[in-house]
Amino acid sequence: MTSTAPDHPTATIDPGTEVGLLALTVADLERSLTFYTAAIGLAVLERSDGAATLGVAGRPILLLREQPGAEPWPRGARSYTGLYHFAILLPTRADLGRWLRNWLELGFPLPGQGDHLVSEALYLEDPDGHGIEMYRDRPREEWQWSNGQVQMATLPVDIRGLLRDAEEEGQPWSGLPEGTRLGHMHLQVSDIRQSADFYHGVLGFDIVAHMPMALFVSAGGYHHHIGMNVWHSRGAGPAPAEFVRLRYFTVDLPSREALQAVVARIDAAGIAHRQAGDRVVVQDPSGNTLVLQAGRALSVADAAAIEGSI
């Protein structure tokens, strides 16, 4: 999956940058909370009327807001710009195997799968059609690179090996373990070139894989923090209001200086944005909303502050 990256004038985003928090709308909050706690293993950290914050070990990962009766996200065939999937990164292979064992014991079918050489990934959907990837990374020293492009593939996952690793550790399932976090985002976009200009040319992410219909970018040599494709959304716009949707996700920079450097490039490019303290709200060319912030959401209070900036 190698190629030559497009030639964009750019400054590199701080290598400590990650994605951190995700906000979605759902049609039925009770249904979603049952799914995300029992089947995914997140904990409810806070709940209010029509909204909930979920996470692991007190750290928020997912914000849900109810939109009663909303249509499910249209997957396959013709769709809209927005979420393709979000990816939950587990600390170890045994952790992923333990999650899979619980999923199967709940009576769900075997998820979709992909051994991507850099990671092992399992794919599923929530009750509203939001795509989810559960994955673990292989050690970075095992990743292969060629001309600045990471070598990835889509091969079958060793399912028996995952379950065996979990069994050998002998630990019962008790939800997602501490250290679990949002590992990357994968978006549906309308145009790959425009997306490259924004995520690479302005924000400063490195292009680590580039194809005619997909693009993967990262900071600090990660295999990807943000993926994007036009497989079902070429030339499309955001979904109509009656559909569930991606509200926003955060891009977490390690310092105010790192954030200011990105904001300076956004200003220079003439891209509209809104600043609220140490946070900047901006949309990519496909209408996906990003919240750029200095630091990470480590508590329910941090997540609430982000909500207040939207």
Can you describe this structure?
With 310 residues, the protein is of the alpha+beta class. It is 23% helix and 34% strand. The chain has helices spanning 29-40, 93-105, 159-169, 192-202, 256-268, 300-309; strands spanning 18-26, 43-48, 51-56, 59-66, 82-89, 112-115, 119-125, 131-137, 145-146, 149-150, 181-188, 206-211, 214-218, 226-229, 246-253, 273-276, 279-283, 289-294. The radius of gyration is 19 Å and the shape is globular.
Q: What portion of the residues fall into strands of 2 or more residues? A: 25-35%
Indicate the percent of residues in helices.
10-25%
List segments where confidence is low: pLDDT < 50 over at least 5 consecutive residues: 1-9
Number of strands: 18
The largest beta-sheet arranges its strands as 2-3-4-1-15-18-17-16
Q: Structural class of the secondary structure composition?
A: alpha+beta
Q: What count of helical segments does DSSP give?
A: 6
Distance between the termini: 37 Å
What does the overall shape look like? globular
| Average pLDDT score | 94
Set out the fold topology:
Blueprint: E1 18-26, H1 29-40, E2 43-48, E3 51-56, E4 59-66, E5 82-89, H2 93-105, E6 112-115, E7 119-125, E8 131-137, E9 145-146, E10 149-150, H3 159-169, E11 181-188, H4 192-202, E12 206-211, E13 214-218, E14 226-229, E15 246-253, H5 256-268, E16 273-276, E17 279-283, E18 289-294, H6 300-309
Parallel strand pairs: 1-4, 5-8, 11-14, 15-18
Antiparallel strand pairs: 1-15, 2-3, 3-4, 5-11, 6-7, 7-8, 9-10, 12-13, 13-14, 16-17, 17-18
Helix pairs in contact: 2-3
